[in-house]
Automatic annotation (TrEMBL):
This is YchJ-like middle NTF2-like domain-containing protein. NCBIfam families: PRK01617.1, PRK01752.1. It comes from Methylophaga aminisulfidivorans MP. InterPro entries: NTF2-like_dom_sf (IPR032710), SEC_C_motif (IPR004027), YchJ-like_M (IPR048469). Gene3D superfamilies: 3.10.450.50.
Length: 152
């Protein structure tokens, strides 16, 4: 997958984008980069990375099982980052992640992140209402096709 486009749809290759974070070769520079890498980790079943980037105060005893269940039961289709705001060690990222359902489902969330000792962690998120997609909008999967010709 190294030369393929990154699942987070950054338009970079996986090896240039999320892979160095997943392999702990570098840390996230900001909350948006961490959020994108977490989306890619869900997409690629990188459970250890998801646990490591979840704030320690939010980890549950059954975290691994919960994450594995989500990964086993969800086919992620695309990511759209809508907003990223950062103030010192606190940040919020609003995004929509699309997944296979019938019809296609979406997770629209405003996530909160904290930076401690130079390391970013996902803290929690607020679920938001689904966004409305137009039939002629570009498809969320990054295919370059119109929504109506792809996942619409």
């Amino acid at each position: 997958m190294n030369n393929d486009l990154c699942p987070c749809l950054s338009q970079l290759s996986y090896s240039e984008c999320c892979e160095p974070l997943h392999k702990k070769q570098q840390g996230a520079e900001n909350a948006e980069q961490l959020m994108r890498s977490r989306y890619s980790a869900f997409y690629l079943a990188e459970v250890d990375y998801l646990i490591a980037t979840l704030h320690p105060s939010k980890r549950r005893l059954d975290e691994r099982e919960l994450l594995q269940s989500t990964i086993n039961n969800t086919q992620w289709l695309g990511l759209n980052v809508l907003d990223h705001q950062q103030k010192n060690e606190l940040a919020e990222v609003e995004f929509v992640a699309f997944y296979q359902d019938n019809p296609v489902g979406q997770l629209h969330e405003r996530s909160r992140f904290t930076c401690e000792s130079g390391e970013w962690f996902y803290h929690d998120g607020i679920l938001l209402p689904a966004i409305k997609l137009g039939r002629n909008d570009p498809c969320f999967c990054g295919s370059g096709k119109k929504l109506k010709r792809c996942h619409g």
